Structures are given as structure tokens and as C-alpha cells.
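JOB MANIFEST
job_type = single_chain_structure
chain_count = 1
residues = 350
[input]
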Amino acid sequence: MIKSDSHYEYVGSIHIHSNYSDGLRPIPEIAKIAEKSGLDFLLFADHMTLEPQKIGLEKWFGPVLSIIGYEINDEDNKNHYLAFGLEDVLPKTLTAQEYVAQAHEQGAIGFIAHPDEKRSALPDHPPYPWLAWDAEGYDGIEIWNHSSEWLERLTHTNKYLRILHPLSYLEGPPEETLARWDKLNRTSVMAGIGGTDAHAYPYRFGPITVYIFRYKVLFKGIRTHVILDQELSEDVTESKNAVLQALKNARCFISNHRWGDAQGFQFNAVSGNTKWMAGDTVEADSVRFVVKPPAAGEISLLRNGEIVAAANGKELSYLGTVSGAYRVEIRRKGKPWIYSNHIRLQKKKS
């Protein structure tokens, strides 16, 4: 955790599988790995089960907060949905539209997982895209998923390099997903999160067994940072709600830790003495957008998915006078590093 400008920043990993579904390790062991990796919170989403919540594994493990949700899918194993805040597993016969609506009605916070997944390299691991775009009640989209991208870009010629260097070859969220996300944010808050989809799969290459998506490796990759008004307390329920509300309200950003520690990143809209951040909607004729990463990078400011300003270094300043949904992408040495959520600028009403 770091504190700046009266806000508290916590960094975590979202979409983790444990041995309660198809992950390799128990939750206490995963939490220890997360602590060594410098993470503050973990969001577990085992498939179709809340058993770890029932037995009390939603708790603080030292400095790491474990939050338990689950990954829902339909009867065709499509439309995967990460739901947090449910007390019980929903009926397995529900359609995607139904489980999104019921989770929302029960006060849960939910994110569409790997929405535009496409892959064919490993027949045993087919794609699980989101098809139910008429569903209502979801809070955000997993715009970047490590497991999905790694598998989608896998070929017979690059698989050995990708196994040896699983963090180095990420190229960023799918353009299709970013375009969809930008469009949704023009009219309302639609949070974007990053997911590790960590399993630690055992995969055999002849006589050798390699564990793909190991926790200690993926925890050094895609991370989601939340910005809070108050420091997290020892109370598990209170702290859990604070993290989930920050995600729902898009008070967060995504980083690939492989290319540098992104803690301290700032993206604001400023007018006089007033400052807004990601997740906010600003009514003004103009605001100045200010971007300050913690290290030099290739900064792009986008409005409705189109680049409107760019800079190389540790700051970008841009006077925004056109309504739209503004967000930031930063690369380091050409590699994807930081993706912010949106600030919406709307013209003042007469």
C-alpha cells in the first residue's frame, strides 16, 4: 500500500483458481506467494463453488486480503462471469442473462471474464468467449487476461520461448475488447480490470512436466491497482467491500509489473482547485487532463478509443474541450505497461 494525495493505493491480483477447482495450490499457500510478490489483495474465483468462503478462507493472511467469489458459466461452458459478494452458488441451469441479473439483484459485483477469447493451439483448452451481450447488471469487463492472451498467441514455433518467458510476450488487451469497453464508457461507468487467470497447470513435454501460469510468476505480471479514500482496516467485511466498490466504480488501473512497478500512477482531470479521477464524470466546458506515471514511458491519452495526445516521459498534459470518455495507455520500450479506467467529460448543461 502507498499513500498519496489523501488516497490509498492497493495492488492485487484478480481471477485466481485454487485447488477448490482447477488450480494447483491451496489458498493459504497462494496468499504466502502473494505476500512475497508484494501484493495486498487477491480475488479468488474458483469454478462454480463458494466452498472456500464457507469454510472461512475469506480473511486476512498476514498483509494479504483474500476475497472469495466464484466463476460462473452456462450449461455450454461459455459466458464466464466473475461474481463477488454472493452468499450461495446460483442454480447451474441459469442462462448468462439470468445469473448476471440474479447476482446483481443480490448485491454482488460482477465482471465479464475474457470476453473476446479466441484460440485453437491447444484443443484441450478451447476458447470461452462472452456471447450474452444483452445481459444487464454487470459492473465491468476483464479487459486483459494473461491466460487468454498467452494461449491465443501460442504456436508450435514459439511455445518454448513463451513457456520460458511467460511475462515478456504480452502485447496488451485485445483491440476488440478495448473498442467495446470504450463504447460502453461513453454513457456510463463500466470498469475495466486485469486478470491473471492463475491455475498452475501441469503440462507435459515428453518426460518433462512444466507448470504453466505458476502463481509466483503471474503475480509479477498483470495486476489491478485500486484507489481508496481510506486505509483498509482489520475488519474483513469492511475491507472486502472497500476493494469491491473501488473496482465497481472504476477507481482502479491495470499494470504489467514485468515492465516496472506502476504504484503511484496518476490520471486526473483538473479545473481550478478541483481534481477528478478515473471513474468520475465531469460536467465542464473544458478540463486539463494530467497523466503522471511513476517512471518514464510512452504515454497515450485516448478519447473514445482514439489517441488525442501523446508524450514520452513522466508527464502528459492536455486541455480537453470535446466530450467523451478519456483514458490512458502507457508503454515502456514498446511493451504494454499501464491501462487506466475512464474519465468522462460532458459539456455543462445550460
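[summary]
The first helix runs from residue 27 to 36.
The chain is about 20% helix and 35% strand.
exit_status = 0
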